[in-house]
Backbone:
């Protein structure tokens, strides 16, 4: 199965993203790597880790199943969200979300933007 990188850059799309991730992980997660790149306004959910508690729970379950979550350092800086607001055990900060997307696609990951 193909490795995939999911991209979220809009805060309003978390429910759709998580639903897509849960489906893909359940059906194909044993056979592919799954990464999520968070940038743009989607980083607002991490302002004081003010994420919807249900979203946080779903993300933890997905992370425990092997889904890797990354967040754009530039987007955090642009929105004045401190890196100390990011739960290190759940989300990895990368310098640039766009560069992470390009790198993953260069490694053969399929790109999905719900």
Residues:
């Amino acid at each position: 199965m193909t490795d995939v990188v999911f991209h979220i850059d809009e805060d309003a799309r978390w429910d759709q993203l998580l639903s897509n991730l849960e489906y893909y992980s359940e059906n194909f997660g044993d056979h592919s790597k799954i990464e999520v790149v968070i940038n743009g306004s989607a980083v607002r959910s991490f302002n004081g880790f003010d994420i919807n508690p249900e979203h946080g729970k779903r993300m933890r379950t997905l992370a425990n199943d092997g889904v890797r979550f990354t967040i754009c350092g530039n987007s955090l800086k642009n929105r004045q969200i401190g890196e100390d607001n990011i739960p290190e055990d759940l989300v990895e900060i990368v310098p640039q979300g766009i560069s992470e997307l390009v790198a993953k696609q260069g490694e053969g990951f399929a790109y999905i933007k719900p």
User: Anything to note?
Assistant: The first helix runs from residue 14 to 28.
